[in-house]
Amino acid sequence: MQRRKFLSLGATAVAVASVLPVSLSATDFRATAPKAWEAPSSKEAIEALFGSSEMIDGQIEIKAPKLAENGGAVPIGIKSKLDLAVVALFQDANPRSAVVVMELAEGTVADLMTKIKMRKTANVTVVAKGRDGKLYSAVQKVEVSIGGCGG
Amino acid sequence: MKIKAKEKKGLVEVKILLDSPMVGKEEAETRKVEVDFLTHVTAKINGKVIWEASTGPFLSKNPYFMFNVEGKKGDELVIETINDKGVVDSDKDQVK
Measured between CB atoms, which of A94, A96, A113 is closest to B66? Predict the structure, then answer.
C-alpha cells in the first residue's frame, strides 16, 4: 500500500473513533463478548466473559433470599469493600446464564441490587473484576418455589 | 421509567425502575409474544458516565437497579436505555 494512502486511512479511523457518543466510552459487553450471552452454564459464560476461571473467594457478599417465592423477580444484592470495576451476575436457572454485566466508574461504591428471573432452584454466581485487575467471586444457592420464565 | 436519587453523607443512592417486558427468545416462543428486552443501561451524573450495565432477558420484567455513587444534592442524573431493536429511552432527575 502507498504510504500516503495508508496515512489518510489512519486519519479517517481516528476521526470516526472521536465522534463516538460519550455513552459508549466504556465497554458494551454484549458486543465484545457475544459468546458469554449464549452460554448455558455459568462456568462457560464466566470463561467467555473474563477469559479466566481463577477467582478469589470471600470478598464479595451476595444478599439473596434463601427461598424466593416469586421466581419472576428475585432480589439479588451485591456488596463488597473492594474497589470494583466490573460486576457480572450469572445463574443456572434459565436457558442461558449471563444476566447482567455492570460497570462501575471510579467513585461508584460496590453496593448494588437488581432483580432477576429464576425458573427453578439454582446457584447465583457473581464475578467481579477489581481495579487491581484481579477476579473475585461469590456463589449462593437460591430456592425458587414458583418459576418466573413465563411458563 | 422511574428514578430516585438521594444523597446521604456524600453518597448518592440511585434507584431506577425501567420499562421493558424483558422477553427473551424462549419466553417469546412459549408466550407467543415478540422478543423485547433492554440491552444496555447507562447512568450519568452531571454528564459523566458513572454506572452502566449490559443487560439480558433474565432480568425481571421492568428491571430494577440500585447502586451507590459519590455525588451531592442538586447533581443531575440521567438514565439512558437501549433495547434489542435499538430504541433509545432516557429520563433525568435531580439528586435530592
Answer: A113
**What ipTM goes with this model?**
0.92
The answer to whether domain B2-94 has CATH 3.40.50.720 is no
Structural domains of chain A, count? 1
Domain boundaries in chain B?
A: 2-94
Residues from chain A that touch B11, judged by Cβ atoms under 8 A, are 109
Q: What residues 54-93 of chain B have any CB closer than 8 A to a CB of chain A?
A: 54-56, 58-61, 63-71, 80
pLDDT at B44 over 60: yes
Q: Compare all CA atoms of chain A with the CA of B52 and give the residue at the minimum distance.
A: A103
Tell me, yes or no, if the pTM score tops 0.90.
no
**What is the residue range of A61's domain?**
22-146
CB contact under 8 A, A150 and B30: yes
**pLDDT tens digits, residue range A1-44?**
555 555 555 555 544 444 444 444 467 888 888 888 888 888 88
E strands along chain B, which residues? Answer: 2-8, 11-17, 38-45, 48-55, 64-70, 76-83, 88-94
Closest CB to A99 among B26, B27, B56? B56
Q: What's the CATH code of the domain at A60?
A: 2.60.40.2470
